[in-house]
Amino acid sequence: MLRDLFRKPKKYATIPSEQVKKDIPEGIMQKCPKCGTILITKELEKNLKVCKACGHHLPMSAPERLQSLVDNGEYHEYDQELISKDPLAFPDYVKKVQADMNKTKLNEAVVTAEGKIGGYPAIIGVMDSRFRMGSMGSVVGEKIARAAERAAAKRIPFILFCASGGARMQEGVLSLMQMAKTSAALEKMHREKVLFVSVLTNPTTGGVSASFASLGDINIAEPGALIGFAGRRVIEQTVRQKLPDDFQTAEFLLKHGQLDMVVPRGELRDTLIKILEFHA
Amino acid sequence: MKQGYLPFEKPLMELRSKIEELEQFTKEKDIDLSEEIATLEAKAIRLENEIYGNLSTWNKIQIARHASRPTTLHYLKTVFDDFMELHGDRLYGDDPAIIGGIAKLNGLTVTVIGHERGTDTKDKIARNFGLPHPEGYRKALRLMQQADKFGRPIICFIDTQGAHPGIEAEERGQSEAIARNLREMAGFKVPIVCVVTGEGGSGGALGIGVGNRLLMLEHAYYSVISPEGAAAILWRDATKAQEAAEALKITSDDLKALGVIDEIIPEPKGGAHRDPMLQSKYIKQALIDHLDELSPMSQEELVEDRYQKFANIGDFTSLVTV
Hints:
The structure holds two protein chains of two kinds.
Chain A: H1 2-6, H2 18-22, E1 29-31, E2 38-40, H3 41-46, H4 62-69, E3 75-78, E4 82-84, H5 93-104, E5 110-117, E6 120-127, H6 138-154, E7 158-164, H7 172-191, E8 196-205, H8 206-209, E9 218-221, E10 227-228, H9 232-239, H10 250-255, E11 261-262, H11 265-278
Parallel strand pairs in A: 6-7, 7-8, 8-9, 8-10, 9-11
Antiparallel strand pairs in A: 1-2, 3-5, 5-6
Helix pairs in contact in A: 6-7
Chain B: H1 10-29, H2 34-53, H3 57-64, H4 72-78, E1 81-85, E2 98-105, E3 108-115, H5 121-126, H6 134-149, E4 154-160, H7 167-171, H8 174-187, E5 192-201, H9 202-206, E6 213-217, E7 221-223, H10 227-235, H11 241-248, H12 252-257, E8 263-265, H13 276-294, H14 299-311, E9 316-318
């Protein structure tokens, strides 16, 4: 047909699939998950992973956090060699832990270390949400308890950065009991009158929020961090009503008297130095 | 007789009602059926042993959740003498999902605290089915501090699905209330014995669960997450709760093997609800035994004993061989 000869060829626009949109390579550029602004990775790192456009605090890995915190980036790591077992022979657990070890180059979801901040020595713990969502199993509980014991024995402050979805389901009741173990170690510190500062970062929920994370002599949170005991969906199903937008954010907790302060990441190191100085 | 039977008990229930029928028949018609009855009785006992000797994790959960399972109030009235209930956290309110007070155990004055899920529907609703709010944990803490002050041993009965998930509970610091109890319980200078009597639901259970001794009724369970919750996360399917329950290792035998609990308190055949008074007797004896063992310890030894108990829980390995 003649008409076919003159038909305009259809024009296609390539729309990236949802998957591709999310998978912007972690190279030169990165997209803020909150406001969508394209950020230059180097600049983002310089800004402590805080979005310049909207102030959103992106997650920091444990090594990044430690680097940003201690004097000259120098610290001595403790108990690095501890690794998880599979006490319940839980489906796929070993595989998942192994995958996270490869992904993060860490042995577990918390790094504990000793270093100096503004010249003040401190025991520092940093949870890493990339590793099993920062969940607490036997190793995380043990490392945090040992860190608290060291702080009590050396009589130097313990600063713990929390980032965790809660107790680790795959280690069952052993994970639950780590809440008691870590809290008991903090009781020892408390008795010895040694300072414990809890820094709650996104997210701090469940069994971690209901144990050491809430037990700081001073509790600090990063802006916008999700902090709470029960999951939002569980609460919505229970109360059958819409929850306020700011529910379980750092700001919500501050308003309800559960935190001492909300401190933006850029000011955190100076705030901690001031606190250490008050207690020196 | 037929009331309160669980699905897996159906064959036994049918056999029992057949025996009853025959007994009725003997009475009414005056025919001697004693031989038949004896045979059936023997069969019933065999069946009973078979069913209760091979309970699955899920069967045990069903028993632990049984509507007529004795609650903390039953034990307060039957294990102890002179229970005097004390109310309120002095901060916000009085949470009826956790009860507590002072009582005598075999002549010894003790402080007793426990989750109370309620007995009839009205009571259950009033007590929020035993799901505490922060004020419940804070009342428990107040009573424990009081016990510590006056040197009384503390006994806790654990029986809750978990701490209440709700807006107000979050606003008033559910996390902080539980966390504080964990820390404070670690430091009390008196013996603390905890008994899981029914459901041990995660942090809400542990909030009154840091003891020198942790005991568990035979069919009780204690878990980091409800089997339904675990199934929803693992397989996005809450109906796979039975599989999740097995995987989570939450029965008294599992917890004994994991080194978490110190003793399993036996239950009457079929569960505590079959003979609540007998259950009270078993619990009373266990409490007396454990308090006897703890009583010679000094204050410091008690704190250290509790510390070591939890310090030793966990399973991990080291990449470096020493």
